[in-house]
Specification:
This is HTH cro/C1-type domain-containing protein. Helix content is 55%, strand content 7%. By secondary structure, it is an alpha+beta fold. It has a five-stranded antiparallel β-sheet.
Length: 344
């Protein structure tokens, strides 16, 4: 038996997963051109599995030169459920780069990003700070314009047109209705993704629908903060995006102490998120609702990721998954725990 096949078979036995062999061929997938060495997956010292950082139901498939990875996520029975792109800063999003794993969420994310693109964003890539200075505005104000070209005052559109030789349409036009339509579809299907709620909130706020805007921002706050990618411009320079979303939620009339415990914790900060979801996980374990307890432990670690006490989170994930009979999730959580402990 070929060494790669032996290594893949060993990973399958140890982790109770099923690995599609063609995905592990040399050459990677798209920009992720370095396929993982299967022998490294089970070796904590190799630090290929980034325990306490990467999603704990996932294994890396291929990486790029910057240290970002394609991950395969697994269901409780060990089948691959989706592929995601994971960045070293903890951000991630579903992707269609891996053959055989289509993703409506990835397709709609791309559609939303295209709808929100404008010429001002392309211009800013050459130097956002210097351009803001030339126009006599703060970087914070300029960041708002990159999010929404409608905010650029008429008096400053003239110098921008002169600078670029472009029309208003080329510089500032965006399809906010198209972006919001794509975001609505993803929010309803994948509530754990944060960018749809943020896009919906901004769109609704822009047309004066405060209640709908607050609901959008609340959806973003409940979701995994690492999935804001399309809406990362909501985070101004030097500000935490979660804080910006919380302020937007309250600005639109959102309750500062809502009945929803998850939202209340998200408004209070990362520590409150960890405490709330771990307590919910313990409560559900005590009631024998082990799959739900696993989901709450996952929220505790990755809703607002903080790289402390991840051994506690991963341990609870493994225990809840084992009690639920989810062998793959239990084995993956314990692999991530071993790598976390080894690399600390």
């Amino acid at each position: 038996m070929h060494s790669t096949e032996r290594a893949l078979a060993l990973v399958e036995r140890e982790l109770h997963v099923r690995l599609p062999r063609p995905l592990f061929a040399p050459g990677g997938h798209g920009p992720y051109d370095a396929t993982v060495d299967p022998e490294a997956l089970l070796d904590p010292r190799a630090a290929v599995v980034r325990g306490g950082e990467m999603l704990p139901d996932a294994l890396p498939l291929a990486g790029d030169a910057a240290g970002n990875w394609l991950l395969l996520r697994f269901g409780p029975g060990g089948a691959v459920t989706e592929a995601v792109e994971w960045r070293t800063d903890g951000g991630w999003h579903p992707t269609e780069l891996v053959p055989g794993f289509p993703s409506d969420a990835a397709r709609l994310r791309a559609r939303c990003a295209a709808a929100l693109a404008n010429g001002l964003q392309a211009l800013a890539q050459a130097g956002e700070a210097s351009l803001a200075q030339d126009l006599g505005v703060s970087r914070e104000t300029f960041s708002d314009w990159l999010l929404d070209g409608r905010l650029v005052p008429d008096a400053l559109r003239t110098p921008l047109r002169r600078l670029t030789g472009s029309t208003d349409a080329a510089l500032f036009d965006q399809d906010w209705e198209g972006a919001a339509a794509a975001a609505l579809r993803v929010r309803d299907a994948r509530p754990e993704l944060a960018w749809p709620g943020a896009v919906i909130g901004w769109f609704e706020e822009g047309r004066g629908a405060s209640a709908a805007a607050a609901a959008g921002y609340a959806a973003a706050l409940r979701a995994f903060s690492g999935t804001l990618d399309v809406a990362e411009r909501f985070g101004r320079p030097g500000e935490r995006t979660a804080r910006v979303l919380a302020a937007a939620y309250e600005r639109c009339g959102g309750d500062r102490a809502p009945d929803d415990g998850s939202l209340r914790a998200a408004l209070a900060g990362a520590r409150a998120v960890r405490v709330f979801h771990l307590a919910e996980s313990d409560r559900l374990r005590g009631a024998g609702r082990h799959r739900e307890a696993y989901a709450e432990a996952l929220q505790a670690g990755w809703h607002r990721h903080v790289a402390i006490d991840m051994d506690d989170v991963l341990g609870r994930l493994g225990d809840a998954a084992e009690a639920a009979g989810a062998a793959a999730h239990a084995a993956l959580a314990r692999l991530h725990l071993r790598t976390w402990a080894t690399t600390r």
